[in-house]
Amino acid sequence: SHSRSRCRLSHLGSRxxxxxxxxxxxxxxxxECLLQPFPVPQRLMLxxxxxxxxxRIAAAGAQPMLGHLHTETIEIMNQIKSGIQYAFQTRxxxxxxxxxxxxxxxxxxIFNSLEPGESILIAVNGIWGERAAExxxxxxxxxxxxxxxxxxxxxxxxxxxxxxxxxxxxxxxxESSTGVVHPIDGIGxxxxxxxxxxxxxxxAALGGTPIFMDEQGIDIMYTGSQKxxxxxxxxxxxxxxxxxxxxxxxxxxxxxxxxxxxxxxxxYWGCDDKxxxxxxxxxxxxxxxxxxxxxxxxxxxxxxxxxxxxxEVAEYFHKGxxxxxxxxxxxxxxxxxxxxxxxxxxxxxxxREITGYIMKTYNIEISGGLGPSAGMVLRVGLMGCNSSKAxxxxxxxxxxxxxxxxxxxxx
Length: 411
Prior knowledge:
disordered N terminus; alpha/beta; about 400 residues; single chain
């Protein structure tokens, strides 16, 4: 109708004047939510990750943008490689950071080390072994698992008794879903005895508890930037031994992922003998700044000092929890992961109400269980800069208040 006050767009998509303004031919208008800033809250991140990013690392990430193959970016990448070698305690030539979170490094490790039809043995004591099994299945590998209960771990004898001759043995060093740090000594020798590559996920543990990649015979190892390293999520350090490289660079088939193909990544990070780095993908340059700074902080702190602090703070936390009458999920003290503590969910309470109360009242994030520990535990992460007795005192106070104010059933 001509009497209608609002304008209609013509079928040709042209612009019309309406009430002295020009109406666009665009049918989707700018979202109102993007026309104002988003107020991001300040929180104390004491879940299993990501952890808080120190001002120094955040400032590093805000430095001017460079091209991903500029001379200065290459120098930063070289320094990152050196920092990863220190953190991993390795001299491996093929050491780099995958552009992506820990999951990307997990896929990089499995996609490159396994070909369709080859066998992998996976030690499952939490969600990360389960995830590794699914990833390996998707590329057509023969997947075998050895499984223990949540909160448990394997002896070397139990691993050797599994009469399977795999190409790769996958093992989680720090199982963040259950709060277990797994003993490593001797497993590398066991793998090499059976001509098997030893692949270790150390996402939740690296920097917070001892690990020696070369000394302990680890062939492939990776971590994430957002845990003990306190950098934003999005870069994942990974390293490959010469044994692993011999297998990977002499494959019969190409890895299923172009993006995660180690032939390309090794060149992009200057880990091969080629004189020129060829364009593969646009690396997350700002994230590289942050990762470099996080590795610089670890180098300044010293690995042994970092390991010692995480152990002392975790033990202080565990003592405080027991004094409150709360039970730790991992019974064996030696197997308790210093970076992520699992607490038996207090009987009669809804764990969601506890974590929600603590978030709302104290602005502190703690989390519930994951995978096999879902509904069974509360998880508290004390990683990197967040690993302090002051933070322990804050979370103990918050837990005590939550238990007073949250509803408890009679059961």
